[in-house]
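Recap from last week: sequence in, structure out.
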Amino acid sequence: MLLAVKPIARLLGFLFFVCNANLQAQSQVQSPTPPQRIASLNICIDQLLWALVPHERLVSISYLTASPMWSPIAEQVRGIPTNHGLAEEIVPLSPDLILAGEFDAASAIELLNRLDKPVTRLPLPRKLSDINEQIITLGDLVGAGKKARTMAARISEQVAELQTAKQNQQPLTAFWYSSNGVVIGDGTLEHELMQLAGLRNLAAERGMFGFNQLDLELLLSAKPQILIIEASNAEGFSLAREYLAHPALANAEFTIVRLPAGLSGCATSVLGDVAIALKQQLANSVQK
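Predicted structure tokens:
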């Protein structure tokens, strides 16, 4: 009997070795080396990459990201090569991952695909749940999954805190007002934020979906209690933004809530800041 035990023990040991080797091989397959040469054609993706990966891994970013007019990280990205969404700018860099947004550089993406280059498109976030999904997807793509999930969890906390602004309060009527006399209705990130804050979106209540132009007279006749304006819309000298400087708005009996710029441009990177600012300003407006 004792003689029979040794072959069995050896067999079990061999099977353990084989199983352990298979598990290690599977682990290696499931955890590939993250891309070391990343090119991005999208200003919003650039801002997330800047927060998620070591900067030396970025071989090219959008030229818009280097412009202070458009990008909050323009000063920080100095020295990073930029592109204008052209395939001929990207191919010589030999990136192992090329990132683009849903609507970026269609002809360039088509050519890069034909050249069998590693292109990944990220869809435009259309609702709040899309924000965290995009962050986590991008994090997994670039080998920063843990960091991305921490970022997503923090944004979820900031958005959840917005709901405390409406506790024990009657819903306030509001418009989210943009340049060119545009109000933002149902089916938008802005509408979801207004709902979380306990606001009645007067544009949505009038059956408006997405972005709609509304005459100033109609806006004033609706008598909103709150008018929400993003900072990017409240500044500048374009003709479109003169709507926001109209004396009728300055003299109207509603509270203007000014939010940080960027939600309509790069929602994923600024959503948390916007949620916090909206909560604080609404709390201040109620106290007045």
